[in-house]
Amino acid sequence: MKLKEMLLDSFWYSVSDWKKLIILGILLVLLDSEGGFSGSWALNGLNVIIFIVILILGVLEAGYIFRVLEESVEGSKKLPKFNRFHEMTVHGLKELVIVTVYFAIPLFLFIMFLWGSNTSADITMAGFLIFIVLMGIIYILFPAVMLNMAHNHGTIRSGLDFRAIIRKIRYLGFRDLVVVYTGMFMILGIVKLVLTDNLSTLPLMGDLISQLLIAPFVLLFTTRMLGLMDKE
């Protein structure tokens, strides 16, 4: 599939079901909410409940987005339904584990680097640069990680199968994967920023459109685009 066809497909796919788009937007709004966290945790047990609810919503959101990716690589042309919540939860938890494993590695190495060396400014800067490089490598690897999981029913093992992940990168083309995936995020990020700034003149309506429509659209679009790059 050519790039133009992938872009058009991803656009129409993302807006094909406004009900599902808005439901995803509501999830994102609730996840961004910080109003419930105030006061002392010891004195306000409501904070604990709010945290648990937000964690559950985050897992469901991750599970749904994984389903979008999984069904996209299988050739589906419709947004998946918000059902089979047990399956969504399991996939969301698995994705959370994989994200934690991958992005905790450079953070752990950075902390160990600083802990095992003198805390001079030069060494600290060198450690920080190494941390940035490792994060960049993982950022490049991660789309292939998610695609490999999508082809293997979301198993944690497939998310850590480095040989299969490297083969996936070679199959997709390292340059194409980096250019398309990074460029896509940059362009959509700029579009979202411009639209959000323009809508800020409409305090209530602008926030509503941005959070309920633009944010979920960007998420669906990028996920669909990634799935089409490796469609079966």
TrEMBL record:
Keywords: Membrane, Transmembrane, Transmembrane helix
Membrane-spanning intervals of the chain: 48-69, 96-117, 123-147, 177-196, 208-227
Keyword tRNA processing: no
Stored InterPro entries: DUF4013 (IPR025098)
Highest taxon, organism lineage: Archaea
Designated name of the protein: DUF4013 domain-containing protein
Native species: Methanobacterium congolense
Lineage: Archaea, Methanobacteriati, Methanobacteriota, Methanomada group, Methanobacteria
